[in-house]
What we know:
By secondary structure, chain A is an alpha+beta fold. Chain A contains seven helices and four strands. Chain A has helices at residues 19-27, 35-46, 51-61, 65-74, 94-98, 101-112, 157-162, and strands at 86-91, 125-130, 142-144, 147-149. Chain B folds into five domains: 7-105, Glutaredoxin; 128-337, Rossmann fold; 348-431, Ubiquitin-like (UB roll) (Roll); 436-524, de novo design (two linked rop proteins), CATH 1.20.1440.230; 538-593, Alpha-Beta Plaits. In chain B, the strands form five sheets. In chain B, strands 2-1-3-4-5 form a five-stranded mixed beta sheet. Chain B has a five-stranded mixed beta sheet with strand order 11-10-14-12-13. A four-stranded parallel beta sheet of chain B has the order 8-7-6-9, sandwiched between helices.
Amino acid sequence: MEGETCKCSQRFADVDDLGPLQEILERYRGEKGALIPLLQDTQEAYGYLDERIMRALAKGAGYQLSQLYGVATFYTQFRLQPIGEHLIRVCHGTACHVAGAELISEEIHNILGIRDGETTPDRKFTVESVMCVGACSLSPIMIVDEDTHGKLKPANVRKVLKKYMGESGEKEE
Amino acid sequence: MNGNGRTKLVLGYGTCGIAAGAAAVKEALERELSAGKYDLELDIAGCMGFCFREPIVEVHYPEGRSVVYGDLTPKKVPQLLEAVSAGEVLEDWVVRRSDDPTAGEGDFLANQHRIVLRNCGNINPESIDEYIAVGGYEAARKALTTMTPEQIIDEVSRSGLRGRGGAGFPTGTKWGFARKAKGDQKYLVCNADEGDPGAFMDRSVLEGDPHAVIEGMIIAGYAIGASQGYIYCRAEYPLALKRLEKAIAACRERGFLGERIFGTDWNFDIKIKKGAGAFVCGEETALIASIEGKRGMPRPRPPFPANEGLWGKPTNINNVETLAAVPWIIANGGDKYAELGTEKSKGTKVFCLAGKVRRSGLAEVPMGYTLRQVIFDVGGGVREGKEFKAVQLGGPSGGCLPASLLDTPVDYEAITATGAIMGSGGMIVADSSTCMVDLARYFLSFTQAESCGKCVPCRLGTKRMLEILTRICEGKGEPEDLERLEILAADIKAASLCALGGTAPNPVLTTLRYFRNEYEDHIFNHKCTAGVCPALITVRINREICTGCGACAKICPVGAISGEKKEPHFIDPEVCIRCKLCLSRCPEEAIYAE
């Protein structure tokens, strides 16, 4: 898709490295009501909201940890667990539901053994059910990393996923 | 559109276009054009609305006519460029010809009336100059330099514009409240948290014409006396966010945002706030809590945001589509807008046609059009010539209407009278393969998961309703369940704190009202006639059609299918888990569920 495809191994900062967090804290210092953007940027940098990072964030930005946890668990965007190398998002909006999104999720479970929110033991894939991505004319849809696969049939899911199953994690163009 | 005498190709470059492969087509076009063989220009635009034929290119000839081509692929690009340079038209690929509305899918646009979508697909949304070239920012200039805030509010009131987010509150009246509210600082918020599954009109406007929304905000901010604006947009819309950021930066550069706008002493600026994924944040007070950095939970009203909103200050919140209509109203006059529509619903409404409709995409029609006109004249009817069964309006807060109500006009009051709501504009068409009980269960599972949990009727009521619907779909429904659903629905509607709970039962109530026989079939006959609910169906192979290719046996996850090669196969109903994977695999369509 647009922009460069990043190398997955270097996609996120290490949770032991607080450097990126310090930068994020600086970015929003003194801004009123910046908790959600703080969490969004932190998740973008680290891939998920690790407990250690959350503690450092609470301290650095002057929040109670409980406030952070409350907000992070309220919004679906935030995750407290790391994700696999490839993120599969299956759209379950109305148009996709009517077009059989359930069968797509079921076939992913047949192939990878994971359901909504789970990650394969080899950390290769995480699957998430998402609400409408707004490309209803292509339903049913699944998005792997940044690539949209539309007008899917359950029988084609394996073929699509095979592209991402290679050892190196390199994608086939 | 094209002043320099060259033919211009405009590629539809919105999210759905890109998802359908527009990025690869763009690359191919750029590669071919960079060789210098063709004297053609290339530009991008937002979504034209022909989502069903993406990726799309519109060819603008210097003499003013244009041809839209669809279903493009990188492979088709050389042939397209050859034909365009030779002045030929590739008839088979035509979606629309400006000089022949009957060609291709021309009636898709011919049956629409575009005000909000006036520029979507026609200008490059990343270029402020293209927006200015079509008269952009003239309405804001006119409003700020020649009108008083009261005159603007009066003009908007006269237009009859009502909130397009779903509730339909008169926009002029709302602005009047915010104008009159006392406060040293006021805020204007654009609600772009389009959370309805199956609705993408706000995204299309933000991606296709972000400046129209910003111009609407400048006018609204001045009218109510708010110097700071916010756009609360879903994080799931990265392209819309990117184009908004670019548009805001361009406006600051031109002096349309910032201090002393258009040489007046009025200051106004806009900040973007990214939503973090919570449907309830479409509700005004929840949205405000979210901007303040809190859990997005609604609070009782009054006090209304117009008096006590963001940070306790007077705040006015309008939806994307509402704001995008404002510059047109100021430029053309409220009376002109009010010429369109019905007695109480004026102007136009944008719908997102999706589901089993033949032409899924964006449809902007005058209020008063019937649902039949929208679905059949614009949308081209049901796909594959199947029979129309229902249309779902308004997403999880809306309802499902049957064929007998297709002549209902698009009008706030008329649609509410059916039990559905106008909503933000999602319109999902269902055919005989959609189970209405399953659809009601689907919406309830959505609202139940999205309930913020603050008030009991919504938090527990939706949960209990979902449990009942789930057991009906599983074939364990009880005869009293229908009455239980109706009692619960009435209580939830009456007692919920906000509109999320207040409207959550609508999909269940409308299906109970118009498709009650399907519920009864599930409960009393243990049948799902649409062949959807796994517990109530049997998957069979038609032995007359089956060629014994074995594809189904290979994909079956439980090994329920057996048979000799090249002989008709057989599904063991004891083993089959009715996942229906084999249905999508069979090349002969010999497998069916009943």
